[in-house]
Design a protein that fits this description.
Elements lengths: L3 H15 L6 E8 L8 E8 L5 E7 L5 E9 L5 E5 L3 E3 L4 E4 L4 E6 L10 E8 L4 E9 L10
Parallel strand pairs: 1-10
Antiparallel strand pairs: 1-2, 2-7, 2-8, 3-6, 3-9, 4-5, 4-8, 9-10
Length: about 150
């Protein structure tokens, strides 16, 4: 019986070594349209870090004239402020969530053909020139955020 324990430990270590390495990825992407025509829409998503640190430097879609990375924060006197950010660090094997009330991408000059229920394709570019393409579901201004993966 006790001889089985070392054998099981070696087998578990071997299986762990064979597991695929986590890769940098983008998941759970969605876009909330603006409540007022002509105002920017907002994109939200999760970046899952790979085996090394990365830095997100841009998010682009052909359906918007300009896209900026932003972060909402509590102001000193209360209320919220929003600042543009040039880059966002993504720690190795960590996760960075872009969610309402926090980090997000602002989509300026969104093509009016983009409607709730459609989808947008984004290109996420990182400082080392890694690019990831991800599709995002589009929802209306008053709709609840999508759930499920």
């Amino acid at each position: 019986m006790f001889r089985a324990i070392p054998v099981l430990a070696v087998a578990a270590a071997a299986l762990t070594a064979c597991a695929p390495e986590k890769q940098l990825s983008v998941t759970d992407a969605w876009v909330r349209l603006a409540a007022v025509d002509g105002r920017p829409a907002a994109a939200y998503f999760t970046i899952n870090g790979g085996p090394a640190d990365h830095t997100l430097v841009s998010v682009r879609t052909d359906m918007a004239v300009r896209t900026e990375l932003h972060e909402s924060k509590m102001a000193e006197g209360g209320g919220m402020t929003m600042d543009a950010v040039q880059q966002v660090p993504v720690p190795a094997l960590g996760q960075v969530r872009f969610a309402p009330g926090g980090k997000h991408a602002m989509l300026f000059g969104l093509n009016p053909a983009v409607k709730p229920g459609s989808s947008l394709t984004f290109i996420f570019t990182f400082a080392d020139a890694t690019r990831i393409q991800q599709t995002a579901r589009v929802i209306a201004a008053g709709d609840p955020p999508p759930t499920g993966k």
